[in-house]
Predict the 3D structure of the following.
Amino acid sequence: MSIAGRNSILLRTLLVDFSNLRLSPATQQIREYYHRPKLRNPYWFVRKTRAANEDNLTAENQDFIKERVHDKFGPPAIIKGVSTYQNAVQSLVKAEEREKVEWSPKLRRTGVLARKIGNYPLWLKNGKKIHTTLLHVVDNHVVRYIPPEEYKPTQKPTVHDVSKYGCLLVGAESTDPSLLTKEYCGLFKDSGVMPKKHLARFLVSPEAALSPGTPLNVTHFRIGDFVDVRGKTIDRGFQGVMKRHGFKGMPASHGVTKTHRRGGNIGAGGEKGRVWPGTKMPGHMGNRYRILKGLRIWRINTKYNVMWVQGNCIAGDTNSMVYIYDTILPLRKPQISPPFPTYFEDESEEALPEEIWYETVHDFKDPSITFAPES
Amino acid sequence: MNISSKVFQSAIINKTNVRRIASTVPRCSAQSERKVPLSSQAQTQSNSPSSSEQRKPVVPSEYRFVYPEFLPDPKLEWRNPIREKLERMDMLNRRKHIDIPEFYVGSIMAVTYSEPYSAGKVSRFVGICIDRDRCGLRARFILRNVIDFQGIEVEYEMYDPAIQKIEVLRLEKRLDDKLYYLRDALPEYSTFDVNMEPELLPEGAPVPVNDIKVKLRPRPWLERWERQNLKGVENIEEHLKEKHILKAKARETPWEKYDLMKQYRKTIPEEEQKEIYAEVYSQLHQLELARKKMKRKRTFIKPTKLA
């Protein structure tokens, strides 16, 4: 018998042995305890940026890629103060195709993505100075709408009765797709929107749904309305109690040794002789999302898509991204209809003025303020 | 251009800045220098219109001292081109309604201001400018005067719409950048007549530097003036003890003037300054011309003395 023939017999016996060894379904172990649902991330949480290497691209290849991008999305252009591409959106819905929906106070509109670009003072007509933060709505477009039946997030948003709301994906700041991964670009494929640097989801009522490609501008909000602004606070790292919680610390002298910036006592003895949960102690500070609520919009610039919002303590550094929502504070919610589902520039009869000021704010184009005596 | 050459360039710019502030003559010479290329450019403009389209407006080099608040905060984390542009637009709009003249720390000014607490009236405060800082719409200055034997300081925001009028009564500079030491000086150094008449400088004259040296009161002081390297104080030595001198010497930082990076971080690069002033030049220049015209009109119409 040849070596090859002997080997084949060996292999056959081995296979038979393995088939005998196979576990029958009856002996399979069944775990009886509760299966925790796997907390899957939303489908748009994919790897965004490519590795930064050049892939040994020649100059001609790079030019070719640039040309392809320009062929598809048009040449680079600055629109409303943001560098984007001329045809960054291809699927604009015409005004006739849109259906009109009546606004009611219980409906939830979409929010927008903006960049915090700094703060400066404005003055009211009564001479009072107010601090304002400038928020630049950067090239926002709707990417996708997921109706309430299909939107089943595993991580529940902190909204009462999520099942009522659909999910609107909004992107901000068009960018060169060659800088992004294939999967990330794929998210934008059906929408006709150019891949965006930033993606966010907003929970909206089905009546406030928008079709992909709809631009969102600063005119989505009205002057004098109140907004909530969500941003990521500045990462300050591991901090002591004086910086993190504003403790007073201890004296610098008078016999104090080695406890100048320490927290002091953290608990009592006896029955409650332990550290109580929630005790303020040193730890990591910042780098978490915080919402500042009920901020009035004092001024709007429609040319640059900028709004001036009350206060200068909006979370995040200058040039960081923030989310702007309609306020949820019950007494500051709008009483009359805001632009619903959003403000369409093509529908309005006359264009809005470039600068819109709230009635009590002093316009810098006006003459100086003088106070007349009350008669 | 690599970073080191940029740094070096900015350092050179800074040095020239400092020299220009300290001396009085170069301003005049800079103007005369400016006039020559302007006229030559005008000639070339008439010859070739195509080249004139590319030509940018020639911004006077002293603009960075006359309008320092148009330069943004050099802190890189706080900068944003669109915010800065909007801020400059607001500043120009405000400047169309109020004449904010050229002034420096050490100039004597009068500010007319209306207050809600004295409605129907305006208050006028005369004093010496002891500090001028901040940028954009936040720009401010502090005036100091002694009124009824009481030192008074008022902080004004330059773009506050309640300000009715800003006059410069005496345009001059002092030896120091900040004059907070007047708080500890004898009161006569910060006493100015409330009814002072404005002193006019001839057209195109350099801004004079007042090299007056003030006398300080004896200790206690508000700040440790001996550590601040002041040029405008006369008698600082006579109030110091041995320990004060030693401590001041220990805290000296004579190497800081050679720290190029420090200077670079504190200033806006010259290329950017030019860009910013080129943007606002035409409007500022028009305002200047209008102001000049107004001034001339006023001198013709208003008689200086009656009877």
About this structure: The domain at 59-235+286-357 of chain A is CATH 2.40.30.10 (Elongation Factor Tu (Ef-tu); domain 3). The first strand of chain A starts at residue 76 and ends at 79.
